[in-house]
DNA sequence: GCGCGGCTCTATAACGTTATACAGGTGATG
DNA sequence: CATCACCTGTATAACGTTATAGAGCCGCGC
């Protein structure tokens, strides 16, 4: 269909190999020949067939970012950063949606797709250490977010326990005593949920507050609807909480909605904190206090490290990086930052 | 690196071609041989090299969906639908982010990427008819959303003018008279903005209401921040509006925020309507009345039509499809649906 | 007994690219 | 003058797959 090297070679009256050398500069070409070839390329509008190049070189220049939900703004924001970083390094990043599905994660991990991408950045939620260790595909893998430890791959995440500490400390500092958590998964396998609950419990203990199991609400998933339902249940308790900490911003925003519907004032009656710092939280009424991971750092680091591995750089062993986070005080805890 | 056809052939003691036939069923294979081959495949964990298959077949099984902003939930929701539909038809859909950048749209239109994907679904915002006509790439193209007409490609969109009519009629029906529009682009090139403004003006005229240019607020982009700023400006007018219609839900949500900050009641003082029906609008306080395009229909239709073209189906001429939409009444106009 | 069609399977030529080995020519060096 | 190094350019073998042509075998009908 398209114009290929042979067409150019004929047009310019040189060999195939010479055209290839002009295109990718693997070997020097005389100035006059180069110009003739270049002219032919311009005239015929040649662009290399990436499939064939891939076949020959063993690289596609494609990397993938696989996330559990495209519709979670956290991942969309992360993706935009990662795409830009990949482009700056000469790679194309494609998005994959695992839909939080175990089969999809496994397929990505060592499945057929691997054959067309040079490397994978994966945010796993349904698979664990064993599955990652069992992987056979040879291409580099970088894990982001929580869920899998002690595997021979780079891993980038925030310290979830510490993040919870920061959120709870803030709520305690503004005088809250009955602090709920929304987004635990009782029998679930989302590792980050367990870690965030752990941080929540530790921080309560450190503040000398009792741990009340009834204030820890489980959810099926981690969307706004889940947060709203859980908050309704909490409000139905005889003695409702005076603050809630959500597994993420979407859950927290769902909680805000339930509170508004029940005519509870935020933050006067109930203070709310989330995690992720999605843009949406800056426009809710009230605006949402949140733990803000450094998305730029996570996105850029994941891409850079993956590409370093692809290009065979001898980065010392698999590295686990904990990226920084900040507490952003907004209206939902009554004490907005400057 | 990976296991290939030759490895399987050796292991099973058959020829390369036979393995290929077992894998893709191009020609019948005897039952006993098939089993031996299948066993070898399972044991060695073979999966075909997509690059090589592409080179040979001329197809990759990859299609792309290019949108102006990954972080706009409308596109994220659309993408999830399209990904599922593509998967059901045996294709893999990858997301591309044009970042509303003209160069990015052009590069996608007939650039090098085309060589690795079988077809493209594009939501153009910075390019027009000429650019699309000038495209040289041979792979099928489906356009979604507004912006380009009279080109030899399938085009799927809602009727923006009619959508505006519906929104304005609703606002008029609940007694509003000073209706503003947020998200016009005065000198801009976003076609859908022009169309939505046109529908707004026509509907005002049909209702016997005057057109007041000061109530039409331009924005640089179409995010929450833009909506918030524009709303602030409108409120600063001597005679502020009693209703606003946003270019999309994100703009409308920004307007909601500005109204909350200024202590205006919604919908009592100002009613608000958006377009897109993003999930976020079901959780704002108040919930957002919106024009809901049939995202499922748009996403599925775009994918199905693209794949039909790729597979050479003789679909009659390029087709322009207008997909249906509905008005969803929620709290921001005071009259929630059942 | 021989030709013929049908059924399995095999050998092999592409697809478009890049890397390797090599050929021809030129100028410098021993 | 022969040798060597060097510089340009060429021919060609991969990469892993699929489609085509054809080889071998069996049974059937004349």
From TrEMBL, chains A, B:
Residues 3-57 form the HTH lacI-type domain. Keywords: DNA-binding, Transcription, Transcription regulation. SMART domains: HTH_LACI. Coiled coil: none annotated. SUPFAM superfamilies: lambda repressor-like DNA-binding domains, Periplasmic binding protein-like I. InterPro entries: HTH_LacI, LacI/GalR-like_sensor, Lambda_DNA-bd_dom_sf, Peripla_BP_I. This is LacI family transcriptional regulator. It comes from Micromonospora arida.
């Amino acid at each position: 269909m398209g114009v290929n090297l042979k067409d150019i070679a004929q047009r310019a009256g040189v060999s195939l190999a010479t055209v290839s050398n002009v295109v990718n500069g693997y070997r020097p070409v005389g100035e006059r020949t180069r110009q003739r070839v270049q002219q032919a390329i311009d005239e015929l509008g040649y662009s290399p067939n990436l499939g064939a190049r891939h076949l020959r070189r063993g690289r596609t220049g494609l990397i993938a970012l696989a996330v559990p939900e495209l519709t979670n703004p956290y991942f969309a924001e992360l993706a935009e950063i990662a795409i830009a970083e990949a482009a700056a390094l000469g790679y194309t990043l494609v998005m994959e949606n695992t839909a939080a599905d175990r089969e999809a994660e496994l397929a990505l991990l060592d499945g057929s797709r691997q054959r067309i991408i040079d490397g994978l950045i994966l945010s796993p939620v349904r698979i664990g250490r064993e599955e990652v260790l069992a992987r056979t595909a040879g291409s580099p893998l970088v894990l982001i977010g929580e869920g899998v430890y002690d595997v021979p791959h780079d891993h980038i995440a925030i310290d979830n326990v510490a993040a919870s500490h920061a959120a709870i400390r803030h709520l305690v500092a503004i005088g809250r005593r009955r602090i709920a958590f929304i987004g635990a998964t009782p029998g679930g396998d989302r590792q980050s949920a367990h870690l965030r609950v752990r941080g929540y419990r530790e921080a309560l203990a450190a503040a000398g507050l009792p741990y009340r199991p009834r204030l820890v609400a489980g959810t099926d998933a981690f969307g706004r609807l889940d947060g709203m339902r859980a908050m309704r249940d909490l409000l139905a308790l005889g003695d409702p909480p005076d603050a809630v900490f959500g597994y993420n911003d979407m859950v927290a925003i769902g909680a805000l909605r339930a509170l508004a519907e029940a005519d509870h004032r935020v933050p006067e009656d109930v203070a709310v904190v989330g995690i992720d710092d999605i843009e949406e939280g800056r426009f809710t009424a009230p605006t949402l206090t949140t733990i803000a991971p450094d998305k730029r750092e996570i996105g850029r680091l994941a891409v850079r490290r993956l590409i370093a591995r692809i290009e065979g750089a001898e980065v010392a062993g698999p590295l686990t990086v904990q990226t920084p986070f900040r507490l952003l005080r907004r209206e939902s805890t009554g004490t907005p930052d400057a």
